[in-house]
Write a structure and sequence with these properties.
The chain is of the alpha/beta class. Helices cover 30% and strands 13% of the residues. It has one domain. The strands form two sheets. The chain has a three-stranded parallel β-sheet with strand order 1-2-5, sandwiched between helices. Strands 3-4 form a two-stranded antiparallel ribbon.
Length: 141
């Protein structure tokens, strides 16, 4: 990363350079489509978030995918909502996007199993699974 400076640093660059430097390692990222903390930091940095965070995340994802074309060591999970970070929260066990629970996706990654990128279809909804008759959520922990 010797050619990276404060002027051209981005999180996309971090993932791209790390994944290229270590093709034997798996890199993964979790975001929510309207992460309120990311929005605050982008605004502090002078980046417009008038169109929401999701288009920016999608653009970042496209940049990373293009730069890592042909490599198979980067995955992403984008859920609906505003929550920043997930691993230490109870929602880790209940949030799902595109029918895939965060917990299951991370467990598969940790086990070295192949996983697909996950991207919320309707990123405006809740990442909590829908309740079924009887009041229990589908796909519980």
């Amino acid at each position: 990363m010797a050619d990276t400076s404060t002027e051209n640093f981005s999180f996309e660059t971090l993932y791209i350079k790390a994944a290229k430097a270590h093709p034997e390692a798996m890199f993964a990222r979790y975001d929510t489509a309207e992460d309120d903390v990311q929005i605050q930091f982008l605004q502090i940095g002078g980046v417009s978030t008038d169109g929401g965070l999701q288009p920016l995340l999608d653009a970042n994802e496209a940049d990373i995918d293009a730069a890592l074309e042909g490599q198979n060591n980067y995955r992403s999970y984008i859920a609906p909502g505003e929550l920043h970070t997930i691993m230490l929260r109870p929602e880790f066990y209940t949030y799902e996007s595109d029918g895939v629970r965060v917990r299951d996706w991370v467990a598969a990654l940790a086990a070295g199993e192949p996983v697909d990128d996950v991207h919320c279809g309707d990123c405006t909804g809740s990442p909590e699974p829908e309740a079924v008759e009887g009041g229990e959520a589908t796909g519980g922990p």
